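Run log, item B.
One chain of 122 residues. Sequence copied directly from the ordering sheet:
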Amino acid sequence: MKILVVDDNESIVRMLKSFFELRGYECMPSLDGRNALDLMTREKFDAVILDLAMPEFSGYDIIDELGKSGKIKDQNIIVLTASSIASDKINLLLKQGIKSCLKKPVTPEVLLDILSSVQKSR
């Protein structure tokens, strides 16, 4: 399974990358929303772990751009955010095509369960 981890916090990206690679997943990091969107349009990922609150080009921007282009349906986006997010916003994101929305901190087991369910649904 190939995973893209998108977060502006380098420590989180490094930790998730190590965590996934130790479990046999291929993991590509991105600290920047524009770079992540470029990677998502050029490469195929089985799952994308996406932070919403990033400077300049946020996770919301990525979701909006993928929605406009019709490519969101090709992505398995799992939102992982520290931001407070209202349930109506979560519902909107789910309607736009994200697969799950998790609040930081999240246990490794929860992430693995979500990834497992995404992998089974493909």
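Observations after the first pass:
- The longest helix spans residues 10-22.
- The CA atoms of residues 41 and 106 lie 27 Å apart.
Flagged for discussion on Thursday.
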